[in-house]
Amino acid sequence: MKFPGRRRHKHYFPVEAKDPLTNQLNATERLHSSYITGIDQIVVDIEAKVDQAFLDEFKLQRGMSQVIDSDVTNALYERLKLHEMVDYEYAGGTVGNTMHNYSVLADDRSVLLGVMSENINIGSYAYRFLCNTSSRVDLDYLQPVDGPIGRCFTLIDETGERTFAISAGLMNHLRPESIDKSLIENSSALVISAYLMRTQGAETMTEATIQAVKYANDAGVPVVLTLGTKFLIEQDPTWWANFVEKHVDILAMNEEEGLAITGFEDPLLAADKALDWVDLVICTAGEKGLFMAGYVDEQLKRETEYTLLPGAIPDFNRYEFSRAMRKADCDDPIRAYSHTAPFMGGPDSIKNTNGAGDCALAAVLHDLSANVYHKINVSNSAKHQQKAITYSSLSQISKYANRASFEVLVQHSPRLSRGLPEREDCLELVYWDK
């Protein structure tokens, strides 16, 4: 992918690499930067392989995401440690993963909002979170709390089914007054997840999230919602549809979450339905690949050079070479869709599916932020005569997102440890250029 910005790799082109004479005239100008802001429940992911008897012992519902109290948490963790059942412990959180992966892919700043233990001991969960988060993720805005952050147990049974047990700690105690208004207003996007709406009692995370969303809506900053789990959406799909329509600009989901909120099992139809509410949709569909849907003005549509694809919407990828726009910015909006099969047919062995969707979203955010970066630094570029919200076409973004998520599928951690390779023959010849 070729995005503007200060990048180490040769396949990125910096906007300052313009005409030498122009560079001399603007030598004193400092390039403005762009960044993404995300709000999350700060947690550490603990992965272990268990059997049904283990789940029954701790009264955990197989395949579901559930909150457990501190007593159960301590007993569960002690049992896993005693029998050496813990496979991995990583910094987690769906938005935390996205911010980390964005900063690794873009080699640029992102900002994470949430809570962090005020007193951190070596080897503690808070310590593990900090150690496994990119230094490019700005953690200066975290709210200090006197207590533990969250823990999320990913318990995998013999069939591969994943059961999630979440110990909240104080992760849901982010206060509305801890949200910096100017930080949100100057962001390229605000990223939230459905998990942030699952609070109870004295927990204030939902209030803080709504406050941040209001700041973003008022400032015209795109709000990106990742649905996170179908079980949460299934509890009240009508409420979620109304929330998305009122507050969200970009929706990220998988096919199960798409079914839960739209009622359509087909990921293409689910993405199409979601366009009734938002401007851009990313829908990951496992072995089927990744679907994207968005709007483009009739006058600015670009037809694909690839084979037209059959589906629930005939020839749906006809305008996939178009750059996505807000519907409100289109004089005559039409819908454009794109689909990309898994990179190189998918990995030979999938080591982890947890975080693959987060990484795909991080790639989309990289493109969105690159568009903002280029616009504020080269505002008179012909590229910005179109009021697009993405730098690249739907087709190219879809490929990039698929390629990035592949890296997570072939490793155990949900977080990237490095950016994409500088050059891949298979990527250049087969994937990008076809």
UniProtKB/TrEMBL annotation:
Pfam families for the chain:
PfkB
Gene3D superfamilies reported for this sequence: 3.40.1190.20
Q: Which residues bind GMP?
A: 93-97, 198
Q: Does the keyword Protein biosynthesis apply?
A: no
Please write the reaction equations for the catalytic activity of this protein: guanosine + ATP = GMP + ADP + H(+); inosine + ATP = IMP + ADP + H(+)
Per its UniProt entry, what is the enzyme's top EC class, as one word?
transferase
Which terms are listed as keywords in the entry? ATP-binding, Kinase, Magnesium, Nucleotide-binding, Purine salvage, Transferase
Span of domain Carbohydrate kinase PfkB = 134-294
Q: Which SUPFAM superfamilies match?
A: Ribokinase-like
Cofactor(s) annotated in UniProt = Mg(2+)
A single MF term (Gene Ontology): ATP binding
A GO BP term here is: purine ribonucleoside salvage
Which PANTHER family did the record assign?
A: CARBOHYDRATE KINASE PFKB DOMAIN-CONTAINING PROTEIN, SUGAR KINASE
Which family is this protein grouped under?
Answer: Belongs to the carbohydrate kinase PfkB family.
Per the entry, what this protein does is: Catalyzes the phosphorylation of guanosine and inosine to GMP and IMP, respectively.
NCBIfam families for this protein: PRK15074.1
Record's protein name:
Guanosine-inosine kinase
Source organism of the structure: Pseudoalteromonas translucida (strain TAC 125)
Query: What is the gene name?
Result: gsk
